[in-house]
Amino acid sequence: MFYDKSQVNNMGPCSILTYKLILLLTIFVAAICFVSVSYAENSKYWVYFTAKSDNAIVNISDKALHRRELRGHGSGLTEHDIYPDSSHIQALEEAGITVHNVSRWLNAASVSGDQDSWDRVTNLKFIKKIKPVATFSKDRLSINDIDQIMHKGFFDENQVAFDYGPSFTQLNICQIDSLHSLGFTGEGILIGIMDTGFKIDHPNFADIIASNRLIDTYDFINNDDDVQDTGMQQSHGTATLSIIGGFSEGSLIGSAYGADFILAKTEINSMEIIAEEDNWIAAAEWMEAQGTDIISSSLGYIDWYDLSDLDGNTAAITIAADIAASLGVVVVNSAGNERYNQSWGSITPPADGDSVIAAGGVDSQGLLFSQSSPGPTADGRIKPDVSAMGEGVIAAYYVNDGFRAFNGTSFSAPMIAGGLALILENHPDWSLDTLYDRLRSTATNANAPNNDLGWGIAKFYNMHSGQSSFQIEQEMTVEPNPAVNSVI
């Protein structure tokens, strides 16, 4: 229909209004129809299938089966171990669609293709639904201070297990140093970290390498096992790994420095962070099958979602995170740094999952980190769950094998993950329900949880001992932090 001025001139006022409404409605319907069948050529989409294969089952390690029996909702193999039907994948590829990742948990594949390819597949009977793969892009602020931070001889060796240097405060605020003093290191706990590249040869990781505690690595961007990478791509992952697993007396000691690690590169880091949820889901499935006990993730995905989707059951990555938890994996994810993001302003998926521990951030005084994302979820649940230091956190830096301070809930999440590794080391039989309940009930805000700090600052000594944080509260030593890096 075209707008013919000569026709309109012969109409009365009511007829003109009716004509214009019909015209607008026609244009709107045409636009909806166009969107429904058009796909951006360079974008990824989830294609969900109606059925799974009859016999394609992933190889599950004995460690994974043991963890499922201890902490999962069931034991042995489950429907989540069965791959989608390979004939469905083959049909997509034969139509010209590029398949990026195949998810057992979602019974779906992340794919991309041109319009002609999509026209050939959208009516296939085995396709249940098609949805965009969520992404997240965020500007990375400039880094000004790259000086090494080396404060040796900082504390009385009779009072603490090690010379923690400037990393003492971030451990002490969560009582992790007290568990170190009891000999807890995270030994035997397998921690999976998803992030950018990792500078594996940083001296802070020398003990992990020397003791063969780096169990496996995989790059889900380039599909190889090299997660080291070069340059700025190493920055974020190097920092998060060091907060858990690093060990350099006088500079930085990680929260679970004796744990085992499995590393996945899932996010691109140049001038901005670019993350895609299908890489996260693929990495989570890979980690779970190898027996990972804890996943520490400092990522979030909001493009294609809106706040009403934060119900714990909508975002693909949240569904996957909850499946991981149902299989006995402790999933810790940063709450995000979106408090002042006017278009979002809340937690980021998968932190909305009811089985995901969303990590908020505080400063060295225990006060709210200003950019830490608040809750609640769309269905009214309190988020974050607990908090740890997210401002001025000391971490390994990829430049000159140094150390520096960082801001962001990206760095409170690995602190909480490491603390939970110490707990699982000594309480391996605790179910996830018991673990989460004791984590919350011993935090500083347990009696009045809110949507800024959740149940408060995690207190792992109290959690281990079974005492309320109001009964056993260590005196926190606060020292000035070095120059603070950008929020990441």
What does this entry look like structurally?
By secondary structure, this protein is α/β, with parallel strands linked by helices. Helix content is 28%, strand content 21%. It is built from 14 helices and 21 strands. It has helices spanning 5-9, 13-37, 62-71, 86-94, 115-121, 168-172, 176-181, 206-210, 235-245, 277-289, 316-326, 412-426, 432-441, 460-465; strands at 45-49, 52-57, 82-84, 98-103, 108-112, 127-132, 135-139, 190-195, 214-219, 247-248, 252-253, 260-265, 267-269, 272-276, 294-297, 330-334, 356-362, 386-389, 391-397, 402-407, 484-487. The strands form six sheets. It has a seven-stranded parallel sheet with strand order 9-12-8-15-16-17-18, sandwiched between helices. β15, α11 and β16 (330-334) form a beta-alpha-beta unit. It is globular. The model is unreliable at 1-36, 139-158 and 468-487 (pLDDT under 50).
Secondary structure category: alpha/beta
In round numbers, the mean pLDDT is 84
In whole angstroms, how far apart are the ends? 51 Å
Separate helix tally = 14
Work out the oligomeric state of the chains in this entry: single chain
- Given as residue ranges, the uncertain stretches (5+ residues, pLDDT < 50) are 1-36, 139-158, 468-487
The radius of gyration over CA amounts to: 25 Å
